[in-house]
């Protein structure tokens, strides 16, 4: 049983459960993945597998070290590599093994990790959900931060003050999403709920930690 | 390829028994209603004035005039609460959203049959 799988977000839609309930779902193209490296306590100090998403990437699109690393495992065409720690009971893997969606089944719980959509330099209303001021009625205070602290004491801005700045494009984990459907033919994993990142963005799917 | 997989998923999960109908048509929607542990069908007949979205969340807005009062219901086309839909009559219209029918009544709100 693989601790996880790599994939790409396809997009969202909704579907109806047999009892008529509507569920929001995200489709993920999950795998097939290849085991690129098997890390062991003797050689690396810990137990893990490194998976690579098979995408038929041309070798000239990879750096030489990356291509060499893949060649060593006898796999090719992969540029999205991620490591999963192995715990006892995960079974054994060796480089070149394949990991497919059939590792998952409906009702499983998974965590999905992705890179959230970048929002650029965002103001406080968007970034920290500040209320902002009134737009009309003579208000001259719209989306500005307001006070960011006291004056001569402490004469500085306290660390952690919420301010405008770069928002999004960060690693985000969504925990405990339910697997609704597994399509082994098209390698599609259907999970309940939203998943971080744009359609086509890379995601890591791992078994729910808690 | 990504969108192709989404299309395939939608096609697979769509209801196959939905008849073809469009704005201006008169349809009769049979809705399953649960009363206690018994289930019965309730029909709602009226003119289709809009179809919204495509895919699995598709809805249809049906308008009828009941005892002089305009009534509109929005049905999710792919939902399991819909038992079946009958097309009663077709209607010739020149736009997809017939919101202008809300402002018309009686003879003015009639639609010609489509050939």
- Whole-number radius of gyration of chain A? 22 Å
Total individual domains of chain A: 2
Fourth-tier CATH superfamily name of the largest domain in chain A: Translation factors
Using DSSP, what is the number of strands of chain A? 12
CATH structural fold name of the largest domain in chain A = Elongation Factor Tu (Ef-tu), domain 3
Tell me which oligomeric state these chains represent: heterodimer
End-to-end Cα distance of chain B, whole Å, is 39 Å
Low-confidence stretches of chain A: none
Q: Kindly name the structural category of chain A.
A: mainly beta
Helical content of chain B stands at 10-25%
The appropriate CATH architecture of the largest domain in chain A is Beta Barrel
What is the number of helical segments of chain A per DSSP (H or I, 4+ residues)? 3
Mean model confidence by pLDDT of chain A:
88
| C-alpha end-to-end distance of chain A | 17 Å
> Which sheet architecture does the biggest sheet of chain B show?
5 strands, antiparallel
Topology:
The complex is a heterodimer of chains A (210) and B (115).
Chain A: E1 4-16, E2 22-30, E3 33-39, H1 41-44, E4 48-53, H2 64-73, E5 81-85, E6 98-99, E7 109-115, E8 120-122, H3 124-128, E9 165-167, E10 171-183, E11 188-192, E12 202-207
Chain B: H1 2-13, E1 26-35, E2 38-52, E3 59-66, E4 69-76, E5 82-89
């Amino acid at each position: 049983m693989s601790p996880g799988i790599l994939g790409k977000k396809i997009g969202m839609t909704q579907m109806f459960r047999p009892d008529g309930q509507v569920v929001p779902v995200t489709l993920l193209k999950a795998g097939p993945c290849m085991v690129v490296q098997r890390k062991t306590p003797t050689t690396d100090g810990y137990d893990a597998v490194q998976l690579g998403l098979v995408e038929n990437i041309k070798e000239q699109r990879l750096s030489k070290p990356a291509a060499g690393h893949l060649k060593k495992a006898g796999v090719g065409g992969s540029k999205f590599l991620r490591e999963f720690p192995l715990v006892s009971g995960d079974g054994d893997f060796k480089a070149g093994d394949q990991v497919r969606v059939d590792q998952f089944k409906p009702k499983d719980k998974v965590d999905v990790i992705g890179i959230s959509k970048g929002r650029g330099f965002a103001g406080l209303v968007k970034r920290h959900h500040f209320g902002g001021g009134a737009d009309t009625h003579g208000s001259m205070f719209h989306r500005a931060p307001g006070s960011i602290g006291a004056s001569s004491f402490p004469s500085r801005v306290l660390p952690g003050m919420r301010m405008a700045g770069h928002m999004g494009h960060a690693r985000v984990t969504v925990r405990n999403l339910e697997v609704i459907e597994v399509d082994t033919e098209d390698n599609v994993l259907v999970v309940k709920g939203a998943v971080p990142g744009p359609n086509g963005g890379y995601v890591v799917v791992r078994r729910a930690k808690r | 390829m990504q969108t192709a997989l989404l299309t395939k998923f939608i096609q697979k999960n769509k209801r196959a028994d939905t008849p073809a109908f469009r704005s201006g048509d008169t349809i009769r929607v049979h809705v399953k209603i649960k009363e206690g542990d018994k289930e019965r069908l309730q029909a709602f007949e009226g003119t289709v004035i809009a179809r919204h979205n495509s895919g699995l969340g598709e809805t249809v807005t049906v308008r009828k005039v009941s005892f002089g009062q305009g009534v509109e219901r929005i049905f999710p086309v792919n939902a399991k609460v819909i038992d079946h839909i009958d097309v009663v009559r077709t209607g010739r219209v020149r736009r997809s959203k017939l919101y202008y029918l809300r402002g018309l009544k009686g003879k003015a709100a009639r639609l010609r049959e489509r050939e």
